[in-house]
Amino acid sequence: MMDLISGTSASRLRQTTPTDPGTRWVKDAKPAIDAPPDPANLPDPAALWPEGATRTGIAGVVTPRAVALPGGGYRMYYTQILPRAGFPAGANDYDNSTTRILSAYSADGRTWIPEAGVRLSPQQGGAGEFRVVSPDVAPAADGSGRLRMYFECCPSAGTEPSVLRSAVSTDGGLVWSVEPGVRFGAPGRSFMSARIVLLEDGRCRLYSGERGRGIVSALSTDGGLTFAEEGGLRIGENESGGDAVVFAPEIIRLPAGGYRMYYAAYSAANRAAILTALSSDGLAWRKDPVPVIQPDGNRWDAVKCSEMGVICLPAPAGGAPRYRIFYEACDGTARNQRGVWRIAGAETAPGS
Q: In what order do the strands lie in the sheet with 163-169?
């Protein structure tokens, strides 16, 4: 969660919620952002499509991350998956697909309107014809008022490791310029789904999924340009016979101290859910074994609920704040229980 309502200084208050969002969520009645219909070669980023249009998983929308804007309302950054030239299966053959980063605006956090233009193309992001994925936006720590986006750069169908790169914006988050170099990467290791947490002492911590290991972290003392990896795993894969893949941590700073993490977990290739964990220091995490959001078997999230982002809604007079979570959801309607990926939403349950 990133709150820019009161400005763009790199303060820990940007990620501190007034209450703990908790574990009880009620799913929305329809997706927040739908996938383009078939065929989907290069659809208009600002288009709205009929709900009943034919979709077979060729195109998809995933990795939602929303920020609260200084002028009111919210902007969601997300990844759109499309077929790459010569590979018509698109998202159903993800390693051979192409992606780009788009955005949508909402006045109330519930109804989203896709915005015109592409926030970041794979060519701009250094991925060639392949993929830029999982944008995470935070204030730059240099006091310039700029925003910095961290994103996953996948320059091949799996032969080259994915790394984390960055881009900056001076216009509030619509136009982005890619910064040179790699923010986080290592030979033979692939990193994904970057998340930045601003610390009290001016440093920042990067959380990332590492393929084959789990969720790792690294520290920056220069405003988020270079990172030194911290030892161990924050949450490991297959811990005590648990989930085979864990990634995409969303970190919430709690008002009384400590953190809540929501993260994606695959228990099998055709099953993913959103879990949660608590930490007093951001390093050692106590996992809750019960998913907070899981597939229900018969909707757009029939088989998979994964990478997510949280926003805080304004509290009504005399009332408690409410929260919304947006997550990528797969309906399992294609071969091997792949299918159409959409962005779904849920809101904190009344009384939670």
A: 131-139, 147-154, 163-169, 177-178
pTM exceeds cut of 0.90 = yes
How many helices (H) and strands (E) in the chain?
0, 22
Q: Which of 193, 347, 190, 311 is nearest to 263 (CA)?
A: 193
Distance of alpha carbon 213 from alpha carbon 194, whole angstroms = 15
Could you say which DSSP state residue 14 is in? G
Share of the chain above pLDDT 70, in %: 95
Measure the CA–CA gap between 20 and 42, rounded to whole angstroms. Answer: 40
Q: What Å distances lie between residue 13 and 107, 144, 171, CA to CA?
A: 22, 18, 22
Structure tokens at 105: 């605006």
The two tokens of residue 349 are: 């349950």
Most confident of 10-19, 33-42, 303-312: 303-312
Domain CATH number, residue 262: 2.115.10.20
Q: What is the band of 8 on the pLDDT scale with cuts at 50, 70, 90?
A: low
pLDDT value for 11: 64
Identify the domain containing residue 103 by its residue range: 2-348
User: Residue 105 to residues 173, 176, 316, 326: CA-CA distances in angstroms?
Assistant: 12, 17, 22, 14
Our count of domains for the chain comes to: 1
Q: What is the dihedral of CA 46, 48, 341, 234, to 10 degrees?
A: 50
Structure confidence by residue, pLDDT tens digits, 62-72: 999 999 998 88
